[in-house]
Design a protein that fits this description.
- The complex is a heterodimer.
- By secondary structure, chain A is α/β, with parallel strands linked by helices.
- Chain A contains five helices and seven strands; from the N terminus they run αβββαβαβαββα.
- In chain A, the strands form two sheets. Chain A has a five-stranded mixed sheet with strand order 5-4-3-6-7. In chain A, strands 1-2 form a two-stranded antiparallel ribbon.
- The longest helix of chain B is centred in the last third of the chain and has 28 residues.
- In chain B, helix 2 crosses helix 3.
- In chain B, 61% of the residues lie in helices and 0% in strands.
- Chain B is elongated and about 95 Å long.
- The chains are: A alpha/beta, B mainly alpha.
Chain lengths: 182, 158
């Protein structure tokens, strides 16, 4: 019975090892950070339009309905990866997407939308990247889910895809819509 | 020979001192040397979230450059060090600090190693005290004494 005491360190080691191994086995990328902005109101912003045909984005424009805010750039590779999916969301009208064009050249961004299609309700230009810093963005693409009171509910870092959308974002949208209807 | 060795030793010591190059560009440097020094000290404790194990002072990522600019702008407008840290934590969370703050959720991080050290130390002391009790130093019995001397004698004869 007394000898069981010597199993203590072994047990301690096993618990620690499992604790550290689980995220690795689950394939969790430790470089992806949780957002500090969850449940907070969107910061003030007033961005000039990218296109002549659509207005820019201010805080008021992002209030009143559940929506996605997508930070993108024409120079960003992963943004190209997610663009097809954003187009399909926009076509199916599941949820409106607002685009914030991060530190981009206006002509390059216009050409990109002309080439790949424009999934956005409105697009604002974040020329010096200050708006992105206010949102806690640390690399494009990043996508934020906003509720109708203008609070940030979810942040996804990296390219969106159908599986991520279904798994992570859809359930929150459904829950939010239930809340507001009921 | 001795001189040569001394020379090599000094060289080795000098080579082991890291001379970290900063990523601060000349155009970013503030006119006021005191504020610039504060900016450097602050930036050395602010994590570049793109590279994640570099400070914004070391990193030439564009986000790091933007954050360096913000730190300097706020210093010029009279912000305190804590106000600047709070500004960044509100947006990026505690992870933006390279030195995690001491608070309830980080007690294990800060005091865990100390706790484990003292737990180990007291266990070892306890173990040593107990072992002494288990193995008391008894003198040899007369029979053992006899055996011992016969062994010694045999060795001397042989």
């Amino acid at each position: 019975m007394r000898k069981l005491i010597y199993l203590g360190p072994l047990l301690f080691f096993i618990i620690t090892a499992v604790y550290f191994a689980l995220p690795i086995l689950k394939g969790k990328d430790p470089r992806i950070l949780p957002s500090a902005m969850i449940e907070k109101n969107i910061p003030d912003l007033n961005l000039p339009p990218l296109l002549e045909t659509k207005p820019g984005i201010d805080k008021q424009a992002l209030m009143g309905e559940i929506q996605l805010v997508n930070f993108f750039s024409s120079w960003c590779g992963p943004c190209r990866t997610e663009h097809d999916f954003l187009m399909s969301v926009s076509k199916s009208e599941i949820i409106p997407i607002y685009g914030i064009n991060y530190k981009d050249k206006q002509n390059a961004a216009k050409a990109w939308l002309l080439d790949l299609g424009d999934p956005y309700e409105r697009i604002g230009r974040d020329i010096d990247g200050r708006t992105a810093i206010d949102w806690g963005v640390y690399g494009v693409p990043e996508t934020y889910l906003i509720d109708k009171y203008g609070r940030i509910q979810y942040r996804h870092v990296g390219p969106l895809s159908e599986s991520i959308f279904k798994e992570k974002i859809s359930p929150i949208i459904k829950a939010l819509r239930k809340q507001t209807n009921g | 020979m001795v001189k040569n060795r001394l020379f090599i030793l000094i060289l080795a010591i000098l080579a082991s001192i890291p001379l970290n190059a900063s990523a601060v560009e000349p155009s970013e440097i503030l006119q006021n040397p005191q504020l610039e020094l504060r900016a450097r000290n602050l930036s050395q404790n602010i994590r570049c979230l793109v590279c994640q194990n570099q400070s914004i002072d070391d990193s030439n990522a564009s986000l790091a450059k933007d954050l360096r600019k913000i730190v300097r702008e706020q210093l010029v407008s009279g912000a305190s060090d804590n106000e600047i840290y709070d500004f960044l934590i509100a947006r990026y969370g505690d992870f933006i600090l390279l030195r995690p703050p001491v608070k309830a959720t980080t007690y294990i991080l800060w005091y865990g190693p100390l706790f484990i050290f003292f737990a180990g130390l007291s266990l070892s002391v306890l173990f040593l005290i107990r072992r002494k009790k288990i193995l008391p130093e008894e003198p040899l019995s007369p029979k053992e004494q006899e055996e011992l001397s016969s062994l010694i004698n045999r060795k001397e004869e042989g």
